[in-house]
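Good morning C.,

I know you're traveling, so I'll keep this short. The sequence:
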Amino acid sequence: QAQLRESGGGLVQAGGSLRLSCAASELNFGNYVMAWFRQAPGKEREFVAGITARGDNVDYGASVKGRFTISRDNAKNMVYLQLNILRPEDTAVYSCAARRTENIATTVIGYTYWGRGTQVTVSS
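The tokens, ready to paste straight into the viewer:
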């Protein structure tokens, strides 16, 4: 059974940065689109960023474009999310997800495997 495990969350002041990591196992990683979603209390899960299997195309949610950067290392079965210029409204649980297709999906239903998430809290 494929497993995704996130790390790197924490408490940071507004304007600060964090780098999230997601380690994949039991998965033919190089064949999967990877994405990050987030969910704040009382809100629906929101697409943050996605990257194609070969890393040649990326997509971002409108609220994070220009501040966050997704990347992957297929040799290490890892995907990363660099979070810069953080705002209090970025506070959420961030989860990585995988889907075996060529295209990035921005909806939850498009993904097969999910991690449990890592908490990011941004103080004002």
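Safe travels,
E.
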